[in-house]
Known about the structure:
Bound molecules: 5'-O-[hydroxy(phenylacetyl)phosphoryl]adenosine
Shape: globular
Number of strands: 21
Strand order of the largest sheet: 4-3-5-6-7-8-9-14-13
Largest sheet: 9 strands, mixed
Mean pLDDT: 93
Structural class: alpha/beta
Helix content: 25-40%
Low-confidence stretches: 1-6
Amino acid sequence: MNAISDDNPLQIHPASVPDYMQVQQMRELQLNRLRSTVRRAYLHVELYRQRMDRQNVLPEDIRSLDDVTCLPFTVKADLRDSYPFGLFASPLQDIVRLHASSGTTGKPIVVAYTQHDLTVWTDAMVRTMAACGLGCGDIIQNAYGYGLFTGGLGAHYGAEALGATVVPISGGNTDRQIMVMKDFGVTAICCTPTYFLHLLDRATEMGVDVRELPLRVGVFGAEPWSDSLRRHIETGGGIKAYDIYGLSEITGPGVGSECRCQSGLHIFEDHFYPEIIDPESGQPVPEGEEGELVVTTLSKHAMPMLRYRTRDISAFISGPCACGRTLRRIKRICRRSDDMFIIRGVNVFPSQVESALLAVEGTLPHYQIILTREGGLDQMEVHVEVTPAVFSDKVGALENLQNKLAQSLYQTLGLRVEIRLIAPQMLKRSEGKAQRLIDRRNLGQ
Length: 445
Ligand code: DLL
């Protein structure tokens, strides 16, 4: 074991030891686990057996990690089509927890955990929290939603096993969140980045300056957020804002996390095997190039996932991280291959709109993109909140800002976009993931 870090090695949480494992040792561990996962999936899940048979692959054919590319992909529709329990590899009596994630259409997807799976998940979440600089002595306000969403319980058990004090407040009731944060001397908060933004705004209205509270860390994830949003949050809250990543299909939060270097997310590779592929061809892209993240679970029993296509776009970051972790890193996910929309023939990602808006002074990071169709032609309108100072300015100043924003969007997207400036606090806030895009084109409006 090569537990060297430029942090004090004596302070490494015992659960984080695999973060510093020698690479060769990690690859051996991954191969062993991959082989038993594939065997399990083949033996117990009909869908995997049929697909592997069709591709003429047997579990014994997996002799090296590179052989993972012989395995079939799994996609979200497979989970939907096998609703609710069709992909389980364990009998129901061994399953101790179910979670579900709602898709944009129809039925949710269901995911299952054995006791062993919960231990793995908790282990990954302890390592996530530790990577964000948290430990025993921290008071963690967990404002991810508790329930079928994996955020609440995932962060809860991780923080508890870390030895921190957990405040299981769940999402919503913002005024109470602020009171608790202040009165309990909370040092870290877990929630979506957009909910934290809302919390900051509300705290200001209540006369509470979050920068003066003991709060020092934010453990944010579950939705894409840009570096500009991170700067806004870190300055406004007087905290360090870390990005954590995960998805229900793989386990929930805990698939990857930033460390104190905030330069990419380390994947907990002993449990999750990552690949980056070209979403069109399905082939691996050269190291460092952008593509779709594909994950194979290595430790899960109830619901092993073979080569799950996340639709999240990222890239491997090569070279070692200054934190000393040997785990591979990926770039922060700022978009999904399927949240792209096409307007007048131009491909647009909400993240591009966010960057273009925040590049202009006077805007707030609260916006919504509304797509409509008028006379057969697609229209894009962006509603964006502006600062109170700008809003109370003269009409000329508002017009000026509107033009600047239209210009910034034109430069980024090459599209003329209608801008509507909105008074502070007027756009609907979300307690969980923010809804940035409203596409009314198919509704004939
Ligand atoms: O959002 C799990 C989670 C909870 C992650 C709390 C982090 C914190 P799902 O609801 O299944 O699970 O949604 C998964 O959310 O495929 C990404 O598109 C997006 N996502 C999650 N984390 C990030 C992130 C949870 N840090 C989907 N950055 C994923 C960008 C993220 N997108």
